[in-house]
Write a structure and sequence with these properties.
Helices cover 29% and strands 23% of the residues. Helix 1 crosses helix 7 and helix 7 packs across helix 12. The chain has two domains: 300 residues, 3-Layer(aba) Sandwich (Aminopeptidase), CATH 3.40.630.10; 135 residues, Aminopeptidase i, Domain 2, CATH 2.30.250. Bound molecules: manganese (II) ion (2 copies). One manganese (II) ion binds next to loops.
Length: 461
């Protein structure tokens, strides 16, 4: 890739390309605005998949039906991860083409015993999820999304702060006038994790001496949502920036939104996946939870969810054996689609300019991630990268190669190394982002468009 702008994808677009690009990115911004938790993503994805003709795998398994070439199925894990299969013409053992991304994003989770009153105001205590700069979460409008599960098993869905008529929440910060000590602190300490408590009320109820403001909130929770204070114990409530995803820039070439890591890759993978009908090799779209905290737990990539589901699919297709499944996995190819850092001219010191990704230069491949001498990374093989170059070149898809940042500037990981344990070819391939992990991340619409084209080309290869 040349670093000058003659190589910019925007310069190559026809009128038709631009129309497709706008259609795709408008739909993407709607998705981001609606889906701010992994559960909301999975619910929406199931909806989109069903509209595209995908069927619940376990309906088919229960009815003892058989799967064959052309069948399209999906399965979810605890409503927070999902995998879709489009059964190809070739035998499973030839391997599958897998698109993978994650649908969880950094945020603040409400604690199990969160509600308290202090100074005549009511707060909900939070514990942050994933890597955040804590100071970025104060003084912005926040919404609460999630579920409260009652002891009878019923689930109360909660979304407060998205409708224009809804109230929002915030975390206060110290006024500059009294912040001389705070301003001397390191950025990591200026706002402490335990201080990320959201302000939820200030009106006392009459006749209560102890915590009257908190009691008023308890009353409102009961009236509006049928929730008791104890129900927080079995709740999964996420505090996220309130409001819609927006077009950014006078030229409207970018997207500003919460949660683009990694919903930008999840959405583009899904859009590509649902747009193809018949495949030669079986196609898989795997959208998982918990990447931001190490891919742990039943819904994270390290769980057996994917493997178990593949076993069910192969069994329903009449080709399951332990050996057949191992061969299928080892012969598969995967694009582990996750965001990478776009070169930021305001902070050039942390980048190697020649090995950075740039807005408008296409989908970004990272042969390796990790930190300190590639530690913890999946270092993809050059043979695989060569195959991918040839696939994308043939379809005129723009791509670039990059490292997250300068050697020893920091680092990060993805789900790639977990899938590589099966012995399959896998490489990180995603969209470049500015302000990654902040409340409002920035992406380039043309990179979103090129990523979708790349994922589609990969599935059809
Ligand atoms: Mn990510
Ligand atoms: Mn991340």
């Amino acid at each position: 890739m040349r670093l000058d702008n003659t190589d910019n994808a925007w310069l190559t677009y026809s009128k038709n390309d631009r129309r497709e690009l706008i259609e795709l990115t408008d739909a993407y911004m709607d998705f981001l605005s609606k889906c701010k938790t992994e559960r909301e993503c999975v619910t929406e994805i199931v909806d989109m998949a069903r509209k595209a003709g995908y069927k619940d795998l376990y309906d088919i398994v229960e009815k003892g039906k058989h799967l064959k070439h052309g069948d399209k199925v999906y399965a979810t894990c605890m409503d927070k991860s999902i995998v879709l299969f489009n059964l190809g013409n070739e035998p499973f053992e030839n391997g599958m083409n897998i698109l993978g991304a994650h649908v969880d994003s950094p945020r603040l989770d409400i604690k199990q015993n969160p509600l308290y009153e202090d100074g005549g105001m009511a707060y909900l205590n939070t514990h942050y999820y994933g890597g955040i700069k804590k100071y970025q979460y104060v003084t912005i409008p926040l919404a609460i999304h999630g579920v409260v599960v009652k002891t009878d098993g019923s689930i109360v869905d909660v979304v407060i702060g998205e409708d224009e008529k809804d109230p929002v929440f915030t975390i206060t910060d110290l006024l500059i006038h009294l912040a001389s000590e705070q301003m001397e602190k390191k950025a990591a300490k200026a706002v402490e994790g335990e201080n990320l408590d959201i302000l939820v009320g200030s009106v006392p109820v009459k006749g209560k001496e102890k915590n009257p403001v908190k009691e008023n909130i308890v009353k409102l929770l009961k009236e509006r949502y049928g929730i008791d204070e104890n129900d927080f114990m079995s709740a999964e409530l996420e505090v996220v920036p309130a409001g819609r995803a927006r077009s950014l820039g006078l030229d409207e070439s970018m997207v500003l939104s919460y949660g683009q890591d990694d919903r930008v890759c999840a959405y583009t993978s899904l859009a590509a996946f649902l747009s193809v009908s018949e495949l030669e090799r079986t196609g898989v779209c795997l959208l998982v939870d918990k990447e931001e905290i190490g891919s742990v737990g039943a819904t994270g990539m390290r769980s057996r969810f994917f493997e178990n589901t593949l076993a069910e699919v192969m069994n329903a297709a009449g080709v399951y054996s332990e050996l057949a499944m191992r061969r299928t996995l080892a012969n598969s190819k995967m694009l582990s689609s996750d965001v990478t850092a776009s070169f930021d001219p305001l902070y050039p010191n942390v980048f190697d300019k020649q090995n950075s990704s740039y807005f408008g230069h296409g989908v970004a491949f990272s042969k390796y991630t990790g930190r300190r001498g590639k530690s913890g990374s999946n270092d993809a093989s050059p043979e695989y990268m060569a195959q991918l170059r040839s696939i994308l070149d043939a379809r005129n898809v723009r791509y670039q190669t990059c490292e997250l940042g300068k050697v020893d500037a920091g680092g990060g990981g993805t789900i790639a190394f977990i899938m590589s344990l099966y012995g399959m070819d896998v490489i990180d391939c995603g969209v470049a982002v500015l302000s990654m992990h902040s409340p409002y991340e920035v992406t380039s619409k043309s990179d979103i468009y090129e990523a979708t084209k790349a994922y589609k080309a990969f599935l059809m290869a």
